[in-house]
Amino acid sequence: MTATADVRAELEQRLADLTARAGRIEAEIAAPMDADSEEQATEAADDTALAGEDALVLKEIAAVRAAIGRIDAGHYGQCLSCGADIAPARLAALPEATMCMDCAT
To answer: pTM, whole model, 2 decimals?
Structure first.
């Protein structure tokens, strides 16, 4: 397998994990509230925190899907801002990176 194919496989696995996580969060948010009003207050606070976590997970899902799209289009590893190659170490640490370090800073 090529290096890009390895990265794509890792991204696909990450996408599957994130999608499952989002599903669990959304199921928890959709669960009916307890009849006890004190417990409802706790659950409402928990749901607010879960909604924030869900938003972050959905944002990460979008970034991973975009990275897979760049692989498929043959543009993976190219800075979307300046067109230069993104350093391999940066891509290893953040496979969904869209910018080189110069443009990111």
So the answer is: 0.84
